[in-house]
Amino acid sequence: MPHLQNHFFIPLLRWLPALALLPWILLSCNGPSDSRQHAVVAQPQGVLAMERVPYARPMSLIDALQEPDSYWVDSVFRSLTPDERIAQLIIIEAFSNQGPAYEADVMRLIKRYKVGGIIFFQGGPVRQAKLTNSYQAAAKVPLLISMDAETGVGMRLDSTVQYPFQQMLGAVADNGLIYGMGAQIAAEFKRLGMHVNFAPVADINNNPNNPIISYRSFGENRQDVTGKSLAFMQGMQENDIVAVAKHFPGHGDTDVDSHLDLPVIPFDRQRLDSLELYPFRELIDHGLGGIMVAHMHIPRLDSAANLPSTLSRPIVGGLLKKELGFQGLIFTDAMVMKGVTKYFPPGEAEARALMAGNDVIERLKSVPVAIKAIKAAIARGDLSQEDIDYRCKRVLAAKQWVGLDKYKPIELTNLYTDLNTPAADSINHAIAQAAITLLNNQKGMLPVRQRRKTRIATLSIGARNTTAFQRLIKEKATTTDYILSRKATAKEAATMWQKLQAYDVVLVGLYGPSIRPSNNLGYTKEAAGLVTKLANANKAVITLFDNAYALNQFPEIEKSRALVLAYQPHFHAQEAAVNLIFGNIPARGKLSVTVNKYYRYGDGISKDVPILQVP
């Protein structure tokens, strides 16, 4: 008998502690709950932060979104009113260079409406970090901080590193360099307290007249675009930054800027499947965390008149979510763009975006107008509160995945140093050397060698002062340096041509109007005419520090003895051009787009050793 009692009671005693907790556990449940839960941490005001078991962070954001319930998510969710749950689906814009009145307006939206996140634009790193700390301290729920940083934070912030645009990256054979760039961008994002990068651009740019994608694309080949987008994505996501590929379902073959109007994409589904959708499908299969939907009208996918893809249920809910099986976060493109506002007023546009299946609305005309319209859509039955609640929990799950359940203010000490590292400089250096593309080298014009009586001139067209290109050349040769405006008159161009007659070799650098590549360099007929003369002069080495498509703006440039494409005017590209011209590095870059009948996709004179060593 004692043996039987022990057999019955000892196991029962083991279960008593758990049985005693059962009523409390049942009371604390609110629907399905994830058993993986995080530690108690301090939060910005209003967030309940008590729980029992540490949160086991999923390997990927997709995994976190599949089971959006956790103790932190549920407790925060329950603290939100229905209006605040809508607001969690809204990202507002912020600048750190607009002054106190502007900053106070952003703060008002955060405090009053409890918006879910911020997308930062121009400013400075310390100013942005201080604003981020202030905004986070005022937020009821920690804010998801994002940036449209296709070339890193230097695309938006002064005193930080800018990496190449994607056309230059498209010339690089080694995608490992692009992965390294993505990882470095992720480190800089985390140092600035940011979580989401609206990159990479996964559009296939096969239209030379595209006014908005162009040099922002990896190129015209779907495999290249996919492989490089994947490397960029993995570099960021494997270092805990959410990558958002854009612009779904593909913005590469249009001649209309969706910032200014609504582009119409006339292609049928077979064409879209074989080209535009290809990179997005592959990225989805490899765990892409976010996708941005473009403002484009695609009649073959949704015939409703003037309906942007952003607001289309067949495109967002049908094609992207159901057919392609995307389970990450879906972001709209900016809701202030004419591609959506031309036909849909503020409020109606945001409500329709959620009705279509988007999770997050970005850059609104008016937060209160949007919330009011979304509530009206719920009242009409076009949306349900359950739809809003589910998406709100997904946003909260994303916030937990990026670490906002353990929010800490940004440390300002050494911020500039941490954002300008030797590693970042090395990556830029390596990319520039790998991308530099040699298109012409007639009669062995390169490498340039200065013999005793060789007279060399340098000419920077489009520059205001002596360029890095010219200064670096002076380290390798004795030169006379000239500068000519892009807006040169006939007299100025003629005078420069006369001066250059005294030289045996002329090393020419062509520059656009800004640090970023340009669709139109803005050269006068006379300035472009001088380039044509130099191309025919049998003594010029011409280097374009701008968009590859800009070669078309210089008639007969294909006749130049040597033609180098450096893609951008940043220092490392100018340095790589000089080293190539004087034979110190090999030429390895390949055109990622077809420019014209002379220069096509894949072109580029390539040597695995520096030109100087070639017999």
3D architecture notes:
The chain is of the alpha/beta class and 615 residues long. It folds into 2 domains: 61-416, TIM Barrel (Alpha-Beta Barrel), CATH 3.20.20; 436-613, 3-Layer(aba) Sandwich (Rossmann fold), CATH 3.40.50. The protein is 39% helix and 11% strand. Helix 6 links the parallel strand 2 and strand 3. Helix 8 runs antiparallel to helix 18 (422-435) and helix 14 (348-356) crosses helix 15 (367-380). The longest helix is centred in the first third of the chain and has 27 residues, at 2-28. Mean pLDDT is 91; it is low at 1-50.
Beta-strand residue percentage? 5-15%
Q: Poorly predicted ranges (pLDDT <50, ≥5 residues)?
A: 1-50
- Assigned CATH architecture of the largest domain: Alpha-Beta Barrel
What best-fitting shape do the alpha-carbon axes yield?
elongated
How many helices does DSSP assign? 22
* Oligomeric state as shown: single chain
Calculate the terminal CA-CA distance, rounded to whole Å.
Answer: 100 Å
Overall pLDDT level: 91
Instruction: Please estimate the helix content.
Output: 25-40%
- Return Rg in Å: 28 Å
Structural class: alpha/beta
Sheet bearing the most strands, described? 8 strands, parallel
Q: What order do the strands of the largest sheet run in, or round the barrel if closed?
A: 7-6-5-4-3-2-1-8
CATH topology call of the largest domain:
TIM Barrel
CATH class of the largest domain: Alpha Beta
Q: Provide the CATH superfamily of the largest domain.
A: Glycoside hydrolase, family 3, N-terminal domain
Task: Give a count of the beta strands, DSSP E runs of length 2 or more.
Answer: 14
Number of domains: 2
